Amino acid sequence: MERRDIFKAALVGTLLCASPLAAQDDKIAIGVAIPSATHGFMGGLNFHAQEAIERLEETYPQLEFVLATAGDAGKMVNDIEDMVATRGIEALVVLPFESEPLTSPVQAVAEQGIWVTVVDRGLSVPGIEDLYVAGDNPGFGRVAGEYFAENLEEGDNIVVLRGIPTTLDNERVEAFQAAIDGSGINVLDMQHGNWNRDDAFNVMQDFLSKYDDIDAVWASDDDMAIGVMEAIAQAGREDEMWIVGGAGMKEIIKRIMDGDPMLPVNVTYPPAQIATAIELTALGMVSDTPVSGRFIIGSQIITPENAENFYFPDSPF
Amino acid sequence: MERRDIFKAALVGTLLCASPLAAQDDKIAIGVAIPSATHGFMGGLNFHAQEAIERLEETYPQLEFVLATAGDAGKMVNDIEDMVATRGIEALVVLPFESEPLTSPVQAVAEQGIWVTVVDRGLSVPGIEDLYVAGDNPGFGRVAGEYFAENLEEGDNIVVLRGIPTTLDNERVEAFQAAIDGSGINVLDMQHGNWNRDDAFNVMQDFLSKYDDIDAVWASDDDMAIGVMEAIAQAGREDEMWIVGGAGMKEIIKRIMDGDPMLPVNVTYPPAQIATAIELTALGMVSDTPVSGRFIIGSQIITPENAENFYFPDSPF
Questions:
Q1: What is the pLDDT of residues A204-218, one digit of tens each?
Q2: B287 at A interface, C-beta within 8 A
Q3: Angle between the N-to-C axes of helices A222-235 and A197-210, in degrees from 0 to 180, rounded to the nearest 10
Q4: How many other CB atoms sit within 10 Å of the CB of residue B141?
Q5: Which of B51, B257, B276 to mutate to test the interface with A (most CBs of A within 10 A)?
Q6: What is the pLDDT of residues B221-231, one digit of tens each?
Q7: A244 HSE (CA, 13 A, CB side)
Q8: What is the Cα–Cα distance from B244 to B242, expressed in whole angstroms?
């Protein structure tokens, strides 16, 4: 952690005018700025951030954390400026609310010599952060595609729901297509359900009215999987097809644990990646272990056999 | 850590016939298999592995570590089989002595449900390991190249020493060349010094006899930098050129700290990456934090200003 000593020096300066709070000031402060728990995935992310902070404050008493959640980019920028100005953070872990408006403020933090860890969504300018932690989007599509290729026969039919049109969604879908290439599976249709339950419901209703023979659905997201299952239930076609969502929503994981034939497996894209980012940042503060670089967290398949290890009943997601 | 519960179950079985050593058996054992400290970099790697293990045994009393060092691939295979058979490891951290002979044995370990972390050198078959931790070879070349581009003038002359002919060396050199592209720097010559002090000495002697005007040397490795400096000293041309090595050997870092004009900077390729791998593996054993995936540790530039943070006087490297 090459930047720590700068702050030790700054701290020594502070202590010349030590207040009764000086003991408090001896701690290394780490700021964590994340979006509010507005929807399922972010709810899980907030849960895992808090859990990691609790665990770390117990493990490393020399650390303290400043957690701020924001419902918009402006609030997040203010949170970060406040962490630097009034809390003297030596490291920042940030999941940018949006890339563009957060780039300059986070760059300004890095230029002050503060360690910066960016999670999930990159900044608009490369090279600002010391550490980048994110999920594996091509892996997310590939792992799902491999399951389809292994568990369907040549000539079987599937439909696919895509997310919001983004590079991220393209990466996932291209890797899925590459993984089923040569398997003889027919992709009847692909439409954008925008990672949204209601949109996915509408897309799936349309698919069901158009196609008599569907063997499986790649819903590619658990919120979309919920919408898809609702459409299938309304059409009374639950026995015809299975569905693979993604990201490990606890209701879905529970059904996999219980052996639901409609939901044989899931693929991880863990909101707990925020915990990985906070842990690595903390490790860099308490040791010489190298933690700069790029950590892409693998997408793993969740089956009835291992589902228990991905089930967090206390998390909102 | 999805595989832990399998082992918890195995442990419960063991406890039915509990011995006075049962308390000991409650610990989660992590095996660490690395090459012996035969040369500088591996010496540093051994040092940082031991340091990480000491720190982790203190931080997490529920963990215990089995460290084995091997001077050849056969010994490493035996070490790993022994860790599984007699020590009941639940995770393995391995820096393969060679890729080919270690691939099947490590695959067999993974197939038993034991967590596998591979460090630095990959296995011959992709997808065996749960976590891969390695340095950034293109980054190593790029960061060095950027320094040359920023600190030399158009028309300045450099020579380059390459490592053993490998993909790894190609990645470094190609990234270096891309970074100096358009700078107007002349690369007079490039020869393989094979990451070896004596070979580098001979290559540099040859360069010095051929070229009257050399402004800088990319030695691309600290062992080679030592050989290069010896050749320059014997030719009495110390005042003409500066040298950039790489990997952060402590003697070189000390000279950067002291402001040696021949050694203005260095580029990291940290032997301490073994500590990162051991720490992440341990974290997966004690928490639900996702630690599977691929962590590429960034190559950073070491300057007189930050050199102190990369200086490990107790390490042999």
A1: 999 999 999 999 999
A2: yes
A3: 40
A4: 27
A5: B276
A6: 999 999 999 99
A7: 28
A8: 7
Tokens of B129: 């390991």
Pairing of strands B242-244, B63-70: unpaired
Show the tokens assigned to B71.
Answer: 């001077």
Q: Which residues of A57-77 are buried (b: 16+ CB within 10 A; e: fewer)?
A: eeebeebbbbbbbbeebebbb
Q: Any idea what DSSP says for residue B182?
A: T
| C-alpha span between A274 and B113 (Å, rounded) | 26
Q: What is the pLDDT of residues B93-116, one digit of tens each?
A: 999 998 899 999 999 999 999 999
Q: Are strands A266-267 and A301-302 parallel, antiparallel or unpaired?
A: antiparallel
* ipTM rounded to 2 decimals: 0.83
User: What is d(CA B307, CA A101) in angstroms, rounded to the nearest whole number?
Assistant: 34
Dump pLDDT digits (tens) for B67-92.
999 999 999 999 999 999 999 999 99
Q: How many Å is the Cα radius of gyration of chain B?
A: 22
B53 to chain A: nearest residue by CA?
A289
B5-15 pLDDT per residue, tens: 444 444 333 33
B200 contacts B193 by C-beta, under 8 angstroms: yes
Could you say which DSSP state residue B310 is in?
Answer: G
Q: Which chain A residues touch B59 with a CB distance below 8 Å? A: 59-60
Which amino acid is located at B53 in the chain?
A: I
Contacts of B182 (CB under 8 A, 6+ apart): none
A114, A102 contact by CB (below 8 A):
no
Lateral strand order in the sheet of A186-192: A186-192, A157-162, A216-218, A242-244
Q: What is the DSSP string of B212-259?
A: S---EEE--SHHHHHHHHHHHHHHT-TTT-EEE--S--HHHHHHHHTT
Chain A residues in contact with B5 by the CB 8 A cut-off are: 308-309
3-state secondary structure of A261: coil
Residues of chain A with pLDDT under 70: 1-25, 39
A interface test, pick of B55, B253, B295, B299 with most A CB neighbours within 10 Å: B295
Q: How far is CA A284 from CA A93, A98, A281, B158, B266, in A?
A: 12, 26, 5, 36, 20
A88: left (phi over 0), alpha (psi -120 to 50) or beta: left
Give, as one character, the DSSP assignment of residue A124: S
How far is it, in rounded angstroms, from Cα A255 to Cα A63?
39
Rounded-to-integer distance, Cα A280 and Cα A257, Å: 31
Kindly write down the DSSP assignment for every residue of B72-124, as one continuous string: SHHHHHHHHHHHHHHH--SEEEE--SSHHHHHHHHHHHHHTT-EEEEESSPPS
B285 inside 8 A of chain A by CB: no
Report all structural domains of chain A as residue ranges with CATH numbers, in order of start: 3-135+270-298 (3.40.50.2300), 137-269+304-310 (3.40.50.2300)
How far apart, in whole angstroms, are the C-alpha atoms of residue B126 and residue B137?
Answer: 19
User: What is d(CA B83, CA B67) in angstroms, rounded to the nearest whole number?
Assistant: 9
Q: Distance between CA atoms of A214 and A235, rounded to whole angstroms?
A: 13
Length of chain A in residues, anyone?
317
Name the closest residue on chain B to residue A45, using Cα atoms. Answer: B289
Residue B306 has its nearest CB partner, among A2, A60, A297, at: A2
